[in-house]
Amino acid sequence: MATATTEAVRLPPGPRIPKPVQGVAFLAAGHGMFVALARRYGSAVISVNLPILGPAVVISDPVLVKDVFNTSTDLIERPTSGPGSLRDVLGAGSMFSLAGDQLRARRKVVVPHFAGKRVRSYEEIVEEEVMREIATWPEGREFETLPSMIRITLGAILRAVFGAEGPALDELRDLLPSMVTIASLIVVVPLRMRRDLGRWSPWGRYLRYRRRFDAVVDSLIAAARVDPALEERSDVLAMLVQARYDNGEPLPDRHIADELLTLVIAGHETTGLTLAWAAERLCRHPRLLSRLTEEVDAGGSELRQATIWEVQRVRPVLDGTPRRTKTRIRLGDWVIPEDTHLIISIRLAHGSEESFSDAALFNPDRFVGAVPKPFAWIPFGGGVNRCVGAAFANMEIDVTLRTLLRELRFTPTNAPGERRRWRGGATAPARGARAVVYRRTKDASSGAAHNRRTSLETVQAAKK
Ligand code: HEM
Protein backbone atom coordinates (compact mmCIF):
# COMPACT_ATOMS: atom_id res chain seq x y z
CA MET A 1 0.00 0.00 0.00
CA ALA A 2 1.18 3.52 -0.73
CA THR A 3 0.12 7.10 -0.13
CA ALA A 4 -1.73 8.54 -3.12
CA THR A 5 -1.83 12.22 -2.27
CA THR A 6 -1.57 13.31 -5.89
CA GLU A 7 -4.10 10.83 -7.32
CA ALA A 8 -7.82 11.51 -7.77
CA VAL A 9 -10.10 9.67 -5.33
CA ARG A 10 -11.51 6.45 -6.86
CA LEU A 11 -13.92 4.63 -4.59
CA PRO A 12 -15.16 1.04 -4.99
CA PRO A 13 -18.78 0.48 -6.12
CA GLY A 14 -21.58 0.93 -3.64
CA PRO A 15 -25.18 2.05 -3.19
CA ARG A 16 -26.06 5.72 -3.83
CA ILE A 17 -29.08 5.68 -1.55
CA PRO A 18 -29.12 8.24 1.31
CA LYS A 19 -27.08 7.65 4.44
CA PRO A 20 -30.09 7.21 6.80
CA VAL A 21 -31.53 4.50 4.54
CA GLN A 22 -28.20 2.69 4.51
CA GLY A 23 -28.16 3.10 8.30
CA VAL A 24 -31.55 1.41 8.62
CA ALA A 25 -30.37 -1.44 6.36
CA PHE A 26 -27.25 -1.87 8.50
CA LEU A 27 -29.27 -1.84 11.72
CA ALA A 28 -31.56 -4.51 10.29
CA ALA A 29 -28.96 -6.76 8.67
CA GLY A 30 -25.53 -5.82 10.08
CA HIS A 31 -22.78 -7.36 7.95
CA GLY A 32 -25.54 -9.23 6.11
CA MET A 33 -25.99 -5.89 4.29
CA PHE A 34 -22.35 -6.03 3.13
CA VAL A 35 -22.78 -9.64 2.04
CA ALA A 36 -25.80 -8.63 -0.10
CA LEU A 37 -23.97 -5.59 -1.55
CA ALA A 38 -20.84 -7.58 -2.37
CA ARG A 39 -23.03 -10.04 -4.27
CA ARG A 40 -24.93 -7.29 -6.04
CA TYR A 41 -21.82 -5.41 -7.20
CA GLY A 42 -19.79 -8.58 -7.76
CA SER A 43 -16.96 -7.03 -5.74
CA ALA A 44 -15.09 -7.95 -2.57
CA VAL A 45 -14.54 -4.22 -1.91
CA ILE A 46 -17.56 -1.93 -1.58
CA SER A 47 -18.31 1.64 -0.52
CA VAL A 48 -21.02 2.43 1.98
CA ASN A 49 -22.14 5.57 3.79
CA LEU A 50 -23.37 4.97 7.32
CA PRO A 51 -24.65 7.19 10.12
CA ILE A 52 -22.02 7.68 12.88
CA LEU A 53 -19.15 6.40 10.66
CA GLY A 54 -19.80 8.35 7.45
CA PRO A 55 -18.26 7.13 4.18
CA ALA A 56 -16.59 3.75 4.68
CA VAL A 57 -14.99 1.07 2.56
CA VAL A 58 -15.73 -2.59 3.31
CA ILE A 59 -12.87 -4.97 2.54
CA SER A 60 -12.79 -8.76 2.42
CA ASP A 61 -10.46 -9.73 -0.44
CA PRO A 62 -7.49 -11.55 1.20
CA VAL A 63 -4.90 -9.62 -0.85
CA LEU A 64 -6.31 -6.28 0.29
CA VAL A 65 -6.91 -7.54 3.84
CA LYS A 66 -3.22 -8.43 4.00
CA ASP A 67 -2.32 -5.00 2.66
CA VAL A 68 -4.45 -3.26 5.30
CA PHE A 69 -3.21 -5.39 8.21
CA ASN A 70 0.44 -5.13 7.22
CA THR A 71 0.60 -1.51 6.21
CA SER A 72 2.42 1.09 8.29
CA THR A 73 0.42 2.75 11.04
CA ASP A 74 1.55 6.06 9.49
CA LEU A 75 -1.04 5.39 6.76
CA ILE A 76 -3.79 3.40 8.50
CA GLU A 77 -4.67 3.00 12.14
CA ARG A 78 -7.36 1.40 14.22
CA PRO A 79 -9.55 4.31 15.48
CA THR A 80 -8.48 5.06 19.05
CA SER A 81 -11.02 7.83 19.60
CA GLY A 82 -14.31 9.01 18.09
CA PRO A 83 -16.75 6.80 16.17
CA GLY A 84 -15.76 3.15 16.02
CA SER A 85 -13.41 3.38 19.03
CA LEU A 86 -13.84 1.81 22.46
CA ARG A 87 -12.09 4.61 24.37
CA ASP A 88 -15.24 5.80 26.15
CA VAL A 89 -16.15 2.35 27.32
CA LEU A 90 -12.76 0.90 28.23
CA GLY A 91 -10.86 4.09 29.13
CA ALA A 92 -7.79 5.96 27.89
CA GLY A 93 -5.44 3.36 29.42
CA SER A 94 -6.92 0.46 27.44
CA MET A 95 -4.97 -1.16 24.61
CA PHE A 96 -7.91 -0.25 22.38
CA SER A 97 -7.15 3.46 23.02
CA LEU A 98 -3.40 3.20 22.39
CA ALA A 99 -1.43 3.48 19.16
CA GLY A 100 2.19 3.57 18.01
CA ASP A 101 4.95 3.16 20.62
CA GLN A 102 2.51 3.18 23.53
CA LEU A 103 0.59 0.24 22.05
CA ARG A 104 3.79 -1.66 21.28
CA ALA A 105 5.03 -1.17 24.86
CA ARG A 106 1.73 -2.34 26.35
CA ARG A 107 1.54 -5.40 24.11
CA LYS A 108 5.07 -6.32 25.21
CA VAL A 109 3.82 -6.58 28.80
CA VAL A 110 0.53 -8.35 28.07
CA VAL A 111 1.14 -10.66 25.09
CA PRO A 112 3.54 -13.13 26.83
CA HIS A 113 0.77 -13.98 29.32
CA PHE A 114 -1.45 -15.29 26.59
CA ALA A 115 1.12 -17.08 24.44
CA GLY A 116 3.30 -20.21 24.34
CA LYS A 117 3.80 -22.33 27.46
CA ARG A 118 1.96 -19.85 29.64
CA VAL A 119 -1.27 -20.64 27.80
CA ARG A 120 -0.97 -24.35 28.58
CA SER A 121 -0.54 -23.53 32.27
CA TYR A 122 -4.14 -22.24 32.28
CA GLU A 123 -5.66 -25.51 31.00
CA GLU A 124 -6.42 -26.79 34.48
CA ILE A 125 -8.27 -23.59 35.39
CA VAL A 126 -10.47 -23.94 32.31
CA GLU A 127 -11.25 -27.59 33.01
CA GLU A 128 -12.20 -26.71 36.60
CA GLU A 129 -14.52 -23.99 35.35
CA VAL A 130 -16.17 -26.41 32.90
CA MET A 131 -16.64 -29.14 35.51
CA ARG A 132 -18.12 -26.66 37.96
CA GLU A 133 -20.57 -25.37 35.36
CA ILE A 134 -21.73 -28.69 33.91
CA ALA A 135 -22.45 -30.03 37.36
CA THR A 136 -25.57 -27.82 37.19
CA TRP A 137 -26.68 -28.92 33.69
CA PRO A 138 -29.98 -30.81 33.52
CA GLU A 139 -30.12 -34.21 31.85
CA GLY A 140 -32.61 -35.05 29.10
CA ARG A 141 -34.16 -31.58 29.05
CA GLU A 142 -33.47 -28.86 26.50
CA PHE A 143 -31.70 -25.80 27.90
CA GLU A 144 -29.62 -22.84 26.69
CA THR A 145 -25.91 -23.59 26.81
CA LEU A 146 -24.90 -19.99 26.03
CA PRO A 147 -25.08 -18.54 29.57
CA SER A 148 -22.96 -21.43 30.84
CA MET A 149 -20.36 -20.97 28.12
CA ILE A 150 -20.06 -17.30 29.07
CA ARG A 151 -19.71 -18.17 32.77
CA ILE A 152 -16.95 -20.66 31.96
CA THR A 153 -14.94 -18.16 29.93
CA LEU A 154 -15.54 -15.35 32.42
CA GLY A 155 -14.25 -17.52 35.28
CA ALA A 156 -11.21 -18.56 33.23
CA ILE A 157 -10.18 -15.07 32.16
CA LEU A 158 -10.77 -13.59 35.63
CA ARG A 159 -8.53 -16.19 37.20
CA ALA A 160 -5.82 -15.75 34.54
CA VAL A 161 -5.90 -11.97 34.80
CA PHE A 162 -6.33 -11.47 38.53
CA GLY A 163 -4.80 -14.68 39.84
CA ALA A 164 -6.60 -14.39 43.16
CA GLU A 165 -9.68 -16.25 44.37
CA GLY A 166 -12.05 -15.04 47.09
CA PRO A 167 -14.63 -12.29 47.58
CA ALA A 168 -13.04 -9.84 45.11
CA LEU A 169 -13.26 -12.40 42.33
CA ASP A 170 -16.82 -13.33 43.31
CA GLU A 171 -17.81 -9.65 43.10
CA LEU A 172 -16.29 -9.44 39.61
CA ARG A 173 -18.02 -12.66 38.49
CA ASP A 174 -21.27 -11.09 39.62
CA LEU A 175 -20.69 -7.65 38.14
CA LEU A 176 -19.16 -8.30 34.73
CA PRO A 177 -22.01 -10.00 32.83
CA SER A 178 -24.31 -6.98 33.37
CA MET A 179 -21.45 -4.60 32.65
CA VAL A 180 -20.71 -6.32 29.33
CA THR A 181 -24.38 -6.31 28.34
CA ILE A 182 -24.57 -2.54 28.83
CA ALA A 183 -21.16 -1.95 27.23
CA SER A 184 -22.32 -3.82 24.10
CA LEU A 185 -25.31 -1.50 23.87
CA ILE A 186 -23.27 1.63 24.43
CA VAL A 187 -20.68 0.99 21.72
CA VAL A 188 -23.35 1.37 19.05
CA VAL A 189 -24.80 4.58 20.55
CA PRO A 190 -23.51 7.87 19.03
CA LEU A 191 -20.89 9.57 21.21
CA ARG A 192 -23.06 12.63 21.93
CA MET A 193 -25.75 10.39 23.42
CA ARG A 194 -23.38 8.86 25.97
CA ARG A 195 -24.55 10.97 28.88
CA ASP A 196 -25.19 10.14 32.50
CA LEU A 197 -28.95 10.66 32.79
CA GLY A 198 -29.18 8.77 36.05
CA ARG A 199 -29.11 5.14 37.03
CA TRP A 200 -31.75 4.08 34.49
CA SER A 201 -29.96 5.51 31.44
CA PRO A 202 -27.55 3.05 29.77
CA TRP A 203 -24.52 5.32 30.15
CA GLY A 204 -25.46 6.17 33.76
CA ARG A 205 -25.77 2.49 34.55
CA TYR A 206 -22.47 1.71 32.87
CA LEU A 207 -20.68 4.40 34.92
CA ARG A 208 -22.10 2.95 38.13
CA TYR A 209 -20.89 -0.53 37.20
CA ARG A 210 -17.52 0.93 36.27
CA ARG A 211 -17.21 2.56 39.71
CA ARG A 212 -17.89 -0.80 41.36
CA PHE A 213 -15.31 -2.46 39.10
CA ASP A 214 -12.73 0.23 39.92
CA ALA A 215 -13.32 -0.12 43.64
CA VAL A 216 -12.59 -3.87 43.52
CA VAL A 217 -9.60 -3.45 41.24
CA ASP A 218 -8.17 -0.57 43.29
CA SER A 219 -8.16 -2.81 46.36
CA LEU A 220 -6.42 -5.60 44.40
CA ILE A 221 -3.82 -3.18 43.02
CA ALA A 222 -3.18 -1.73 46.51
CA ALA A 223 -2.73 -5.26 47.89
CA ALA A 224 -0.37 -6.15 45.02
CA ARG A 225 1.80 -3.07 45.65
CA VAL A 226 2.54 -4.24 49.19
CA ASP A 227 2.66 -7.95 48.38
CA PRO A 228 6.17 -9.20 49.34
CA ALA A 229 5.70 -12.07 46.85
CA LEU A 230 4.73 -9.75 43.97
CA GLU A 231 7.75 -10.68 41.85
CA GLU A 232 6.91 -14.38 42.00
CA ARG A 233 3.31 -13.83 40.91
CA SER A 234 2.33 -14.70 37.35
CA ASP A 235 -1.07 -13.02 36.98
CA VAL A 236 -1.51 -10.09 34.59
CA LEU A 237 -2.42 -7.65 37.35
CA ALA A 238 0.91 -8.34 39.08
CA MET A 239 2.78 -7.81 35.79
CA LEU A 240 1.03 -4.52 35.06
CA VAL A 241 1.78 -3.27 38.58
CA GLN A 242 5.47 -4.04 38.01
CA ALA A 243 5.61 -2.70 34.43
CA ARG A 244 7.54 0.51 33.75
CA TYR A 245 7.45 2.90 30.81
CA ASP A 246 10.79 3.60 29.10
CA ASN A 247 11.25 6.64 31.37
CA GLY A 248 10.96 4.37 34.43
CA GLU A 249 7.48 5.61 35.42
CA PRO A 250 4.95 2.99 36.60
CA LEU A 251 1.56 2.70 34.89
CA PRO A 252 -1.06 4.87 36.64
CA ASP A 253 -3.57 2.78 38.60
CA ARG A 254 -6.38 4.05 36.38
CA HIS A 255 -4.61 2.71 33.28
CA ILE A 256 -4.02 -0.65 34.94
CA ALA A 257 -7.74 -0.84 35.73
CA ASP A 258 -8.60 0.11 32.11
CA GLU A 259 -6.38 -2.65 30.77
CA LEU A 260 -7.67 -5.29 33.16
CA LEU A 261 -11.23 -4.40 32.19
CA THR A 262 -10.21 -4.58 28.51
CA LEU A 263 -8.79 -8.07 28.87
CA VAL A 264 -11.80 -9.35 30.74
CA ILE A 265 -14.37 -7.76 28.42
CA ALA A 266 -12.51 -8.54 25.16
CA GLY A 267 -11.60 -11.97 26.44
CA HIS A 268 -14.71 -13.67 27.68
CA GLU A 269 -17.84 -12.92 25.66
CA THR A 270 -16.12 -13.60 22.33
CA THR A 271 -14.83 -16.97 23.52
CA GLY A 272 -18.09 -17.90 25.26
CA LEU A 273 -20.13 -17.13 22.15
CA THR A 274 -17.76 -19.17 19.97
CA LEU A 275 -18.33 -22.11 22.32
CA ALA A 276 -22.08 -21.60 22.12
CA TRP A 277 -21.85 -21.69 18.31
CA ALA A 278 -19.76 -24.84 18.56
CA ALA A 279 -22.53 -26.52 20.60
CA GLU A 280 -25.16 -25.27 18.14
CA ARG A 281 -23.23 -26.65 15.13
CA LEU A 282 -22.28 -29.98 16.73
CA CYS A 283 -25.85 -30.83 17.74
CA ARG A 284 -26.78 -30.52 14.05
CA HIS A 285 -23.92 -32.71 12.79
CA PRO A 286 -24.34 -36.11 14.46
CA ARG A 287 -21.65 -37.88 12.47
CA LEU A 288 -19.11 -35.23 13.42
CA LEU A 289 -20.24 -35.44 17.03
CA SER A 290 -19.56 -39.18 17.12
CA ARG A 291 -16.18 -38.79 15.43
CA LEU A 292 -15.18 -36.08 17.90
CA THR A 293 -16.23 -38.22 20.85
CA GLU A 294 -14.24 -41.17 19.51
CA GLU A 295 -11.25 -38.89 19.04
CA VAL A 296 -11.46 -37.58 22.62
CA ASP A 297 -11.67 -41.14 23.94
CA ALA A 298 -8.59 -42.04 21.92
CA GLY A 299 -6.71 -38.96 23.20
CA GLY A 300 -6.56 -37.19 19.82
CA SER A 301 -7.22 -33.57 18.90
CA GLU A 302 -6.79 -33.00 15.15
CA LEU A 303 -10.47 -33.10 14.21
CA ARG A 304 -11.36 -31.00 17.26
CA GLN A 305 -8.90 -28.29 16.21
CA ALA A 306 -10.27 -28.39 12.66
CA THR A 307 -13.79 -28.06 14.11
CA ILE A 308 -12.80 -25.02 16.16
CA TRP A 309 -11.37 -23.31 13.08
CA GLU A 310 -14.47 -24.17 11.04
CA VAL A 311 -16.88 -22.93 13.73
CA GLN A 312 -14.95 -19.65 13.76
CA ARG A 313 -15.08 -19.51 9.96
CA VAL A 314 -18.82 -20.07 9.52
CA ARG A 315 -19.94 -18.28 12.69
CA PRO A 316 -17.34 -15.58 13.48
CA VAL A 317 -18.56 -13.85 16.62
CA LEU A 318 -17.10 -10.52 15.52
CA ASP A 319 -18.34 -9.59 12.06
CA GLY A 320 -15.57 -7.12 11.37
CA THR A 321 -12.81 -4.90 12.70
CA PRO A 322 -12.27 -1.20 11.93
CA ARG A 323 -9.37 0.89 10.65
CA ARG A 324 -9.15 4.54 9.54
CA THR A 325 -7.00 6.10 6.83
CA LYS A 326 -4.62 8.80 8.05
CA THR A 327 -3.81 9.99 4.54
CA ARG A 328 -5.07 9.39 0.99
CA ILE A 329 -4.09 5.84 0.11
CA ARG A 330 -4.06 3.50 -2.85
CA LEU A 331 -5.68 0.15 -2.05
CA GLY A 332 -5.61 -2.21 -5.03
CA ASP A 333 -7.39 -0.37 -7.85
CA TRP A 334 -8.92 2.17 -5.51
CA VAL A 335 -7.81 5.53 -4.14
CA ILE A 336 -9.34 6.21 -0.74
CA PRO A 337 -9.42 9.66 0.90
CA GLU A 338 -7.90 10.59 4.23
CA ASP A 339 -10.02 10.00 7.35
CA THR A 340 -12.17 7.26 5.80
CA HIS A 341 -13.27 4.24 7.79
CA LEU A 342 -12.16 0.86 6.51
CA ILE A 343 -14.23 -2.07 7.70
CA ILE A 344 -12.47 -5.39 7.37
CA SER A 345 -15.44 -7.72 7.09
CA ILE A 346 -14.55 -11.00 8.75
CA ARG A 347 -17.93 -12.43 7.87
CA LEU A 348 -17.64 -11.58 4.19
CA ALA A 349 -14.06 -12.87 4.03
CA HIS A 350 -15.06 -16.18 5.60
CA GLY A 351 -17.95 -16.66 3.17
CA SER A 352 -15.80 -16.21 0.06
CA GLU A 353 -16.02 -19.06 -2.47
CA GLU A 354 -12.60 -18.06 -3.82
CA SER A 355 -11.05 -18.73 -0.42
CA PHE A 356 -13.23 -21.65 0.75
CA SER A 357 -14.96 -24.05 -1.64
CA ASP A 358 -18.61 -24.69 -0.71
CA ALA A 359 -18.17 -21.84 1.74
CA ALA A 360 -21.73 -22.05 3.08
CA LEU A 361 -21.19 -25.65 4.21
CA PHE A 362 -20.05 -26.41 7.76
CA ASN A 363 -17.26 -28.87 7.00
CA PRO A 364 -14.43 -29.16 9.55
CA ASP A 365 -12.70 -31.72 7.33
CA ARG A 366 -11.54 -28.85 5.13
CA PHE A 367 -9.05 -28.05 7.90
CA VAL A 368 -7.93 -31.60 8.69
CA GLY A 369 -4.27 -31.73 7.68
CA ALA A 370 -4.39 -28.08 6.61
CA VAL A 371 -4.11 -24.84 8.55
CA PRO A 372 -6.38 -21.88 7.72
CA LYS A 373 -5.01 -19.40 5.17
CA PRO A 374 -3.79 -16.36 7.13
CA PHE A 375 -5.61 -13.46 5.40
CA ALA A 376 -8.70 -15.40 4.31
CA TRP A 377 -9.42 -16.79 7.80
CA ILE A 378 -9.32 -13.77 10.13
CA PRO A 379 -11.51 -14.24 13.24
CA PHE A 380 -8.78 -12.61 15.35
CA GLY A 381 -8.04 -9.70 12.99
CA GLY A 382 -4.40 -9.11 12.08
CA GLY A 383 -1.32 -6.91 12.00
CA VAL A 384 -0.23 -4.76 14.95
CA ASN A 385 -3.70 -5.00 16.49
CA ARG A 386 -4.15 -8.76 16.11
CA CYS A 387 -6.03 -10.20 19.08
CA VAL A 388 -3.64 -10.73 22.01
CA GLY A 389 -5.83 -13.55 23.33
CA ALA A 390 -6.01 -15.71 20.17
CA ALA A 391 -3.93 -18.61 21.55
CA PHE A 392 -5.61 -18.37 24.95
CA ALA A 393 -9.06 -18.42 23.35
CA ASN A 394 -8.15 -21.42 21.20
CA MET A 395 -6.92 -23.28 24.29
CA GLU A 396 -10.11 -22.42 26.22
CA ILE A 397 -12.36 -23.61 23.39
CA ASP A 398 -10.29 -26.77 22.95
CA VAL A 399 -10.24 -27.69 26.65
CA THR A 400 -13.94 -26.91 27.04
CA LEU A 401 -14.96 -29.03 24.04
CA ARG A 402 -12.65 -31.85 25.13
CA THR A 403 -14.16 -31.86 28.61
CA LEU A 404 -17.76 -31.60 27.37
CA LEU A 405 -17.28 -34.48 24.92
CA ARG A 406 -15.56 -36.60 27.58
CA GLU A 407 -18.26 -36.01 30.19
CA LEU A 408 -21.46 -35.64 28.18
CA ARG A 409 -23.33 -36.98 25.21
CA PHE A 410 -25.05 -34.23 23.23
CA THR A 411 -28.31 -35.31 21.64
CA PRO A 412 -28.36 -34.53 17.91
CA THR A 413 -31.27 -32.48 16.66
CA ASN A 414 -32.86 -31.92 13.28
CA ALA A 415 -34.10 -28.46 14.32
CA PRO A 416 -33.09 -25.71 11.88
CA GLY A 417 -29.81 -23.95 12.62
CA GLU A 418 -30.13 -21.03 15.06
CA ARG A 419 -30.10 -17.61 13.45
CA ARG A 420 -27.47 -14.99 14.29
CA ARG A 421 -28.50 -12.44 16.90
CA TRP A 422 -26.38 -9.32 17.15
CA ARG A 423 -25.66 -8.35 20.77
CA GLY A 424 -24.06 -4.97 20.01
CA GLY A 425 -20.45 -6.09 20.01
CA ALA A 426 -20.71 -9.74 19.02
CA THR A 427 -23.06 -12.22 17.35
CA ALA A 428 -24.78 -14.99 19.31
CA PRO A 429 -26.98 -17.99 18.43
CA ALA A 430 -30.49 -16.48 18.64
CA ARG A 431 -31.99 -19.23 20.82
CA GLY A 432 -29.03 -19.49 23.17
CA ALA A 433 -27.50 -22.63 21.59
CA ARG A 434 -30.09 -25.00 23.02
CA ALA A 435 -29.03 -28.56 23.65
CA VAL A 436 -30.10 -31.78 25.37
CA VAL A 437 -27.32 -33.66 27.14
CA TYR A 438 -26.83 -36.90 29.06
CA ARG A 439 -23.93 -37.77 31.33
CA ARG A 440 -21.82 -40.37 29.60
CA THR A 441 -21.49 -42.62 32.64
CA LYS A 442 -25.26 -43.12 32.48
CA ASP A 443 -25.25 -44.01 28.77
CA ALA A 444 -25.82 -47.70 29.32
CA SER A 445 -28.84 -47.19 31.55
CA SER A 446 -30.45 -44.60 29.32
CA GLY A 447 -31.67 -46.88 26.54
CA ALA A 448 -34.51 -44.64 25.39
CA ALA A 449 -32.21 -41.71 25.05
CA HIS A 450 -29.75 -43.88 23.17
CA ASN A 451 -32.38 -45.07 20.69
CA ARG A 452 -33.51 -41.53 20.09
CA ARG A 453 -29.94 -40.58 19.36
CA THR A 454 -29.26 -43.34 16.86
CA SER A 455 -32.41 -42.58 14.90
CA LEU A 456 -31.19 -39.02 14.60
CA GLU A 457 -27.79 -40.14 13.37
CA THR A 458 -29.36 -40.24 9.92
CA VAL A 459 -30.16 -36.54 9.89
CA GLN A 460 -28.70 -34.92 6.82
CA ALA A 461 -26.69 -32.24 8.63
CA ALA A 462 -25.33 -30.58 5.54
CA LYS A 463 -28.81 -29.25 4.79
CA LYS A 464 -28.54 -26.79 7.68
C1 HEM B 1 -12.82 -16.47 20.20
C2 HEM B 1 -12.40 -15.48 20.96
C3 HEM B 1 -11.90 -14.16 20.47
C4 HEM B 1 -12.12 -13.54 19.27
C5 HEM B 1 -12.98 -14.02 18.10
C6 HEM B 1 -11.40 -12.29 19.30
C7 HEM B 1 -11.34 -11.39 18.24
C8 HEM B 1 -10.62 -10.22 18.26
C9 HEM B 1 -10.54 -9.29 17.15
C10 HEM B 1 -11.23 -9.45 15.80
C11 HEM B 1 -9.75 -8.27 17.54
C12 HEM B 1 -9.40 -7.02 16.71
C13 HEM B 1 -8.12 -7.32 15.96
C14 HEM B 1 -7.81 -6.32 14.87
O1 HEM B 1 -8.39 -5.24 14.86
O2 HEM B 1 -6.97 -6.62 14.01
C15 HEM B 1 -9.34 -8.52 18.90
C16 HEM B 1 -8.53 -7.69 19.63
C17 HEM B 1 -8.21 -7.90 20.95
N1 HEM B 1 -8.52 -9.00 21.70
FE1 HEM B 1 -9.53 -10.64 21.09
N2 HEM B 1 -10.76 -12.17 20.50
C18 HEM B 1 -11.03 -13.30 21.24
C19 HEM B 1 -10.55 -13.60 22.50
C20 HEM B 1 -9.76 -12.76 23.25
C21 HEM B 1 -9.22 -13.08 24.54
C22 HEM B 1 -9.38 -14.41 25.26
C23 HEM B 1 -8.55 -11.97 24.99
C24 HEM B 1 -7.80 -11.75 26.27
C25 HEM B 1 -7.01 -12.60 26.78
C26 HEM B 1 -8.66 -10.96 23.95
C27 HEM B 1 -8.11 -9.71 24.03
C28 HEM B 1 -8.04 -8.82 22.97
C29 HEM B 1 -7.36 -7.53 23.04
C30 HEM B 1 -6.70 -6.92 24.26
C31 HEM B 1 -7.45 -6.97 21.77
C32 HEM B 1 -6.88 -5.61 21.32
C33 HEM B 1 -5.49 -5.84 20.73
C34 HEM B 1 -4.81 -4.58 20.24
O3 HEM B 1 -5.48 -3.66 19.88
O4 HEM B 1 -3.56 -4.51 20.22
N3 HEM B 1 -9.40 -11.47 22.92
N4 HEM B 1 -9.87 -9.72 19.30
How helical, in percent, are the residues?
A: 40-55%
Structural class comes to alpha+beta
Bound molecules: protoporphyrin IX containing FE
Q: What characterizes the major β-sheet? A: 5 strands, mixed
Going across the major beta sheet, what is the strand order?
2-3-9-6-4
| Strand percentage | 5-15%
- The helix count comes to 17
Radius of gyration: 23 Å
**Total count of strands:** 14
Q: In one word, what is the shape?
A: globular
Q: Which blocks of ≥5 consecutive residues have pLDDT under 50? A: 444-464
How far apart lie the N and C ends? 40 Å
Rounded mean pLDDT is 89
Task: Describe what is shown at a glance.
With 464 residues, the chain is α+β, with helices and mostly antiparallel strands.
Report what the structure shows.
This protein has 464 residues and is α+β, with helices and mostly antiparallel strands. The protein is 47% helix and 11% strand. The chain has helices spanning 19-29, 31-41, 62-70, 87-90, 100-110, 116-120, 123-134, 146-162, 167-186, 202-225, 236-242, 253-283, 286-297, 302-314, 346-350, 390-407, 447-456, and strands at residues 2-3, 45-50, 54-59, 76-77, 143-144, 320-325, 329-331, 334-336, 341-345, 408-410, 420-422, 427-429, 434-435, 437-439. The strands form 5 sheets. A 5-stranded mixed beta sheet has the order 2-3-9-6-4. A 3-stranded antiparallel beta sheet has the order 1-7-8, covered by helices on one side. A two-stranded antiparallel sheet has the order 5-13. 40% of the residues are buried. Bound molecules: protoporphyrin IX containing FE. Protoporphyrin IX containing FE (HEM) binds at residues 78, 95-96, 103, 107, 114, 262-263, 266-267, 270-271, 274, 317-318, 321, 379-383, 385-389, 392-393.
